[in-house]
Write a structure and sequence with these properties.
homodimer, 318 residues, alpha/beta, ornithine cyclodeaminase, domain 1, Rossmann fold, seven-stranded mixed beta sheet, 36% helix
């Protein structure tokens, strides 16, 4: 049996292989080739924590994956990361445990970044250059890193906004050390008005991005709304979008960025399509330079399966 | 972080500590002190396999436990055990992974055996001696081992019946080598008619044990009915029992040994009580030497939590 530490996993990451694997996972999920049972959940209200168990299998894959991901929100006060996790890979033909990836949440962060880059690359204008990143959490940096790699043929510029100037500076400094230049701004509205691409990565429970700020031709990838009550985009913006694309429609309509508009009867479920359908050509992506496109990514177990397989393939080759 | 192999786990088993821990877990569950979300499930029909994810937390415990247990029914044809599994212990205050118990299903087998011994000891007549064991699977031997240890102050005699004489001989031989004498018989009816205690451990989907065969004063512990469609006891026997005791009432009524009688309207849910209630005195157990008592054990995550904690406590002390 294989047991890999976070440090070992980090050395095994092949960006392009991961990008390809996660893209194929979206397609498999949209084509109904992924068995993804409901997410398991247990809460620890006294510790301000919870744990999600995501698991599933993609038809034909030799393994299935169980991911245990916890979030305990007082951890930073004792010097621990809020999130932690482990991925288990089991044989889909014998049920035997094949690998334990002690990734501490690293692979979830990575597959979320790869998913954002895939959606953004698929839906933005061909001439899109100016990227606005909203938020200063771990996904702000990862979305920039992944998009920078996934669209390295374009000369993207990145500008970062978040409520905390101090946190924004930390993210920008870290990226500068990796050779990725990131501007910062205190003016969210102007940033949104001038952006070609907007990536929102906050845990906002009130809309941060207003419809009036968004010019035609903009693409928005919204990462933050992964649980009921969260919303980053003004409802009117979701209604106004020409293309609404989700990683998993039932999640986006139930608790994602499209749920408020859907529950209010302002959009029909048929007006939303899945990212896998755009990637395999079953659904239309952006049709012209004027459309506003919104991708809502709530996170799906197929991404976890894909990234785990990619790491195990790299381990086998190494 | 602690990683223990099956061999290491086996050296850490303290029978009496495990028996106590599992008993306390039943009480905690019946008192509403255990958070036990619905069991996760994923099937692999092409491989004749499935995987259950059981998880939960007992109030006040420093850890919570996630158990992944798979059953792939073609495994024996390639020399592998049908069942395999792993237990994960995570901190209930920080969510960090604290231990991985690579028990390969051993701890599930053990906690099931301990649960059977607890139920049988709590509900049989004080003068019960003759134990009938039905089945030749792994639980047949484990139920005997655990009952032998848990009731070593009584001079129990064990008689084994199963459909396959060859398999019965294998179980009896293995126990003989451990110093536990086990008779065998080919006459199930006579065995049941003369037994004080009957323990059923089969995956039967048609009742094996008929009501007419059971004399007053008999206690029955039924282990096998852990999924819809399974039934070991004739429905009339369940109806006739003076005490119906379950490890978890909702499971026993939904798919356990009590479900057929309950669905037919032959017993009321109020006429069934939980083992934890018997153990803490909230519900009546056996009231006299004439009663027929039936314990239906479907398996609960609280047992997994308890046995995991017991192993980790032993590891810490060692």
């Amino acid at each position: 049996m294989i047991i890999l530490s976070r440090a070992e996993i980090e050395t095994l990451v092949d960006f392009d292989a991961g990008l390809h694997a996660v893209g194929q996972a979206y397609i498999a999920a949209s084509q109904g080739k992924a068995t993804i049972p409901p997410v398991g959940y247990i809460a620890f209200p006294q510790a301000d924590g919870d744990c999600h168990i995501k698991y599933g299998h993609i038809a034909g894959d030799p393994i299935f994956v169980v991911k245990i991901a916890s979030g305990f929100y007082r951890n930073p006060s004792i010097g621990l990361s809020t999130s932690s996790g482990v991925m288990l890979a089991l044989s889909a033909t014998t049920g035997q445990l094949e690998a334990i990836l002690l990734d501490e949440g690293f692979l979830t962060d990575l597959r979320t970044g790869l998913g954002g880059a895939i959606a953004t690359r698929a839906l933005c204008r061909p001439d899109a250059r100016r990227v606005a990143i909203i938020g200063s959490g771990i996904q702000a940096g990862i979305q920039i890193r992944c998009l920078h790699r996934a669209m390295k043929d374009r000369s993207l510029t990145f500008t970062l906004w978040a409520r905390s100037d101090a946190k924004v500076a930390v993210v920008a400094d870290a990226l500068a050390k990796e050779g990725i230049a990131v501007e910062t701004t205190g003016d969210l509205e102007s940033l949104c008005r001038s952006a070609d691409i907007i990536i929102t990565t906050t845990p906002a429970r009130e809309p941060l991005i207003l419809s009036d700020w968004i010019r035609s031709g903009t693409h928005i990838t919204a990462i933050g709304a992964d649980a009921p009550g969260k919303q980053e985009l003004e409802t009117q913006l979701v209604v106004r979008a020409d293309r609404r694309i989700s990683d998993r429609l039932e999640q986006s309509l139930a608790h994602g960025e499209f749920s408020t508009a859907f529950e209010a009867g302002l959009i029909a479920s048929e007006s939303c399509r899945e990212l896998g359908e755009v990637l395999d050509g079953t659904a239309k992506g952006r049709q012209n330079e004027h459309e506003i496109t919104v991708a809502d990514l709530t996170g799906i177990a197929a991404q976890d399966i894909a990234i785990t397989r990619a790491i195990l393939d790299a381990h086998r080759q190494a």
